Amino acid sequence: MDAESFRVGFGYDSHRLAEGLPLVLGGVSIPSDRGCVAHSDGDAVIHALCDALLGAAALDDIGTHFPDNDPAYKGIDSALLLQKTVALLRSEGWRVNNADITIILEKPKLADHKPLMRARLSELMGVPAGAVCVKAKTNEKMGFVGAGEGVAVTAAVSIIPLTT
Ligand code: MG
After folding, report:
1. Domain span at 63
2. Does 1 fall in a domain?
3. How far is the CA of 23 from the centre of ligand 1 (A)?
């Protein structure tokens, strides 16, 4: 692989939290009294990851490929969106090299769930678990995340040509 064929992408997503909704992050259901308000299942980890992957391949953004006003995506399992995104990149000649994710959520604490998210995301993207890092932190009680009103996620990825 020559250095010019290596690409990086960055993604961000946030969702409002409300009581009584399921919380799904990184393809994993997490016990919580609050979950994401969203058109899909509200998996902000996968949404940020999809945007990072699409960005790396210069393929626009998740809202363009999976519009949130399209009934086809209402309540959809975001795992499918990630699989579709990876397939799209593959059709354009790219594969995932690694992904590095940071989840910013005041509660619940995610430490116990990180290994499962990592395993699930690596499975969905078809890469070794060692190519995926899931990190979690609070926002030190500041802002909308700190107030427990929402969750925010950042994702950085690198992609390389399929031929490497
Ligand atoms: Mg989203």
Report:
1. 7-161
2. no
3. 13
pTM for this entry: 0.95
CATH number of the domain encompassing residue 80: 3.30.1330.50
Q: Is residue 2 part of a domain?
A: no
Residue pLDDT, tens place only, 66-108: 888 888 888 789 999 999 999 999 999 999 999 999 999 999 9
Q: Are 44 and 152 in contact (CB under 8 A)?
A: yes
Cα 43 to ligand 1 centroid, rounded to whole Å: 6
Q: What is the tens place of the pLDDT at every residue in 16-42?
A: 999 999 999 999 999 999 999 988 889
Task: Report in angstroms the alpha-carbon separations of 164 from 1, 10, 46, 133.
Answer: 6, 22, 25, 22
Q: Is 80 helix (H, G, I), strand (E, B) or coil?
A: helix
Q: How many angstroms is it from 68 CA to the middle of ligand 1?
A: 9
- For ligand 1, the distance from its centroid to the CA atom of residue 78, given in whole angstroms, is 9
Least Cα distance to 134 among 108, 156, 159 occurs for: 156
Q: Ligand 1 centre from 89 Cα, in Å?
A: 20
Q: How many domains does the chain have?
A: 1
**Residue 3, pLDDT above cutoff 60:** no
CA of 75 to the centre of ligand 1 (A): 12
